[in-house]
Amino acid sequence: MELYICTTVRHLLLSIMKATNTPNIVANIVFFYDYQNAEPDSYDTSSLPQNIKIHFLKRRELTKKINSVVSGKITFFAAMREIKSNGWLKNNLLKFLKKYNTDLYQELNGRPLEEMYLFNERSKVSRLFRLFSSEYSIIEDGEANYKTFRTKTIQRPIRIIRGLKVNESSWGESNNCRFINVFNPERVPVGVVDKAKSIGFINKKSKSIIRDFFRISKSNQSNKTIIVATQPIETIPGSSRAVKELIYDTLLSKLNLKQNSIWLKIHPREPQGDYLDIISKYNINLMESKLPVEALLLGGDGEEKPYIISLNSTSGLGFEEYCNIIKIFEGTLEVEIKKFNQNNFSSIEKKLKDI
């Protein structure tokens, strides 16, 4: 049995696609749907192959129940600090799942777990479910898979004990992580490059399944669809919420709004309120949080491949057969934002001229 832990609709899509490629292996997909305010009834689970079962859970609800008693607090504390799992911790977590989600409990208690797949290995729910297995593998979550991060001073003594790099960290560095499944293995940090594997499960085999599961109809399609995928750049040096709004305002002003169908896909970590003025000003469509960009691409029947425009995100990556990807900024966000603040709009104008 394979176990997938998802917190975004993109995670959900990739899990279904991977599980579709292994029809002889039972796949239990745990989807914490409250992170993006998706609802279980938004999806048609009856369209899935027999080997795939999806369990809809709420992050806050589950963690609140676990932390409501002393044994749960101990389990949660151990998981958050990545303490090596043992029989007591595993069985204790199973007890909580038995009360919270009987179907998931029966699957985990009744079948041997052969492989666990995580996307964001550092999220609280991923750390919780890591108690069920001593090993796991990662599936790409985004740009974070290709970056190294400066560690905090307080973390360094523990990293020395664990045999990890002291001053920097990267996703998949844990000795418990077997493989890092990404679209560009050559881009992962040097320290984990030996674990990197190329994602090979993006194919047409699951196209109809994805369309039915996400309830995508032809009415969603347009001969010329442009999807603008936003990013939470306001925390980057030199940026702010006002700068972010100005960048996307400038970007949209360069597009031919009358002849194209424009969709705005807001990043999961951004509030919709950041873009209300822009949505109203340009009268563009807002893509629902329940729908991943890639599902729209796979479900498309338009004469032209849709365009996905972002500043420099991974939106559409791996789905190039189904879309045209345009990244506005070629350099780092910090450098490009500095240029933008100097009224240099050449990057936007250059990239959008041929649309």
Could you explain the architecture of this structure?
The chain has 355 residues and is of the alpha/beta class. It contains 13 helices and 14 strands. The protein folds into two domains: 2-140 and 199-204, no CATH class; 216-352, Rossmann fold. The strands form three sheets. Strands 3-2-1-4-5-8-9 form a seven-stranded parallel beta sheet, with helices on both faces. β4 (115-118), α6 (124-129) and β5 (136-139) form a beta-alpha-beta unit.
Offer a concise description of the structure.
The protein has helices at 9-20, 59-66, 70-80, 87-100, 102-110, 124-129, 156-161, 207-213, 241-253, 276-282, 293-298, 333-341, 346-352, and strands at residues 2-6, 27-32, 52-57, 115-118, 136-139, 149-150, 168-169, 177-182, 196-198, 225-229, 261-265, 285-286, 307-310, 324-327. The chain is an alpha/beta fold and 355 residues long.
Percent helix: 25-40%
Q: Largest beta sheet: what is the strand line-up?
A: 3-2-1-4-5-8-9
Quaternary: single chain
Q: Please provide the count of β strands.
A: 14
The sequence of SSEs as H and E is: EHEEHHHHEHEEHEEEHEHEHEHEEHH
Beta-strand share of residues: 15-25%
Per DSSP, the total helix count is 13
Secondary-structure blueprint of this entry?
Layout: E1 2-6, H1 9-20, E2 27-32, E3 52-57, H2 59-66, H3 70-80, H4 87-100, H5 102-110, E4 115-118, H6 124-129, E5 136-139, E6 149-150, H7 156-161, E7 168-169, E8 177-182, E9 196-198, H8 207-213, E10 225-229, H9 241-253, E11 261-265, H10 276-282, E12 285-286, H11 293-298, E13 307-310, E14 324-327, H12 333-341, H13 346-352
Parallel strand pairs: 1-2, 1-4, 2-3, 4-5, 5-8, 8-9, 10-11, 10-13, 11-12, 13-14
Antiparallel strand pairs: 6-7
Helix pairs in contact: 3-4, 4-5
